[in-house]
Structures are given as C-alpha cells and as structure tokens.
Write a structure and sequence with these properties.
single chain, alpha/beta, eight-stranded mixed beta sheet, two-stranded antiparallel sheet, 10 strands, globular
Amino acid sequence: MNGTGLVLEGGGMRGVYTAGVLEYFMEQDFYLPYVIGVSAGACNATSYLARQRGRNKKVTVGFSNHPDYISLKNFWKKRQLFGMDLIFDEIPNKLVPFDFDRFHSAEEKFVIGTTDCRTGEPVYFEKSSYSSEILSILRASSSLPFMAPVIELEDRYLMDGGISDPIPIRKSERDGNKRNILILTRNDGYIKKPSRMNWLTRKVYPQYNGLVDRMNNRFQVYNETVDYIREKEQSGDVFVIRPLEPLQVGRVERNPEKLTALYEQGYYDASNQFDALKEWLGTSIQTEGTVTAH
C-alpha cells in the first residue's frame, strides 16, 4: 500500500461519520502509511492512529450534551461556541485519556492542515516534528472563524484547516501518494454556496487579509476540489467513502440520537464497501485481519 494516502475532511459534528468509518478500519486492523486531515478529520485520526477503539465515539457523541461542549454560554464568555479547553485539554488529558505514547510511536505519517490567517495559505504540520504541540495544532486546525479564537504558534496566526484546503488530496499527492482513500462528510453532489457573511469577516478580522480573502472564495476552492476528486474517481486513483443517506446532522449538532445514527452510518458504509476497497487496493485479508498488499 505504499503510495496510498488516507485523506479526512472536516465538518464539525458531521465528523462522527468519519469516526464510524475509522472504527471499522480499526476493527479490521486496517491502517494506511500516510494520513492527512483537517479539523474534525484530524481529530478523529488521532484516536485511530493511537489504536484507541471506541474513543472517538466517547469524545463526540458521549460529550455532545455536556454543558461546555457546544453552548452559547461559551460563546458569550470566551467567544468560543465549542468548548475548546474542554475538547483539547480536559478530555484528552483527564476525562477520556489519549494515549500519547502509542500515537507518537505509530509508524504512520500524520499531517494536520491549518490556515495561516495573515497569508491565507495552508500550513501543514507532521506529527513526528511536533510531539509536544500536537494538541495546539489540532486546536488550530479546528478553530472556526467567529466560533473560536485565532491560535498563535511559531509566529503564525492559525485557524481552521478547512478554510484553505478543505479536502487535502493534493497535499497527499505532493507527498508521494498517487492513490488516495477519501472519507468525506458531505453527500455526493453537495455544492458549497458563496457566504453571505463576507462583510462580517472583514469587520471582525481586519488585520488578517489572507483569512478574509480565503473566506470570500472558500466556496470556489471547495467546489473545485470536489470536481478534481470526481476526475480522480473516474480515473481510478481515488476511492471515496461518503454518507450515502441524506445528512441529518449539521456542524454544531448536539442531538445524541442523530449523532449516533450518523456514526453508525459511517461504520455501516465502511463495512459495506470494504471488499470493494480491498479490490481497489489489490489487497488480501490475512487470518488476523491485517490488510497487506500483494
């Protein structure tokens, strides 16, 4: 499977779909040598690479009704709709402990995408070079404009990776992966529309022209990327797993029943497409479940 990447889209709470897919992958002991993600996709990837089965569901669905997970109180007090301290400090360090040692010892290359607010360009971080800053990088990759503060790291001002590179397939290709498995969190045929909030972006972030420009043309970048992925699907270079049922979950969904249903949909879609995925890869399942290349 050398030269094959795993690319994970973000999407806030829609990321529970990705959590379901990755849960099935873990059960099959199925790991790719290269993983890249943004926002919720990157967050889900960490538990996957740490081999912590069930953790993504505990963190997302299990805490969806926590008063500090998503709340207007957070927003008014800290300008954070999501409880970033809870998500990127209390949960991984105390409430649902993250296996940092297993994560950092994993052989897979893992890349996290963020957006530089000053330039508007994507900035990527690879886990082997940032062992002590991994939570800060994940936090930056998940920090949505208007919903979370800008994160300062290495003299950069960073926010949500999905702004500049929503589905980082081209970065994976530049890193040597001619073929890619994509886990997307939108239904097939979704087209992003222009934002009506461009005036507010410019008012709130006057010092970050790069961020403002990226937010203005975000819909074009997303739609062009989807068109590119469709071309790659047709040529056989990409295998896509995406929600097959109409989405009932939005970016800030708190209903545990809806979140559980989307998680289970991801698990089901992965299991239902796994044979086709193996055929696409040209792989076989050994008795212990590990996927290996012929």
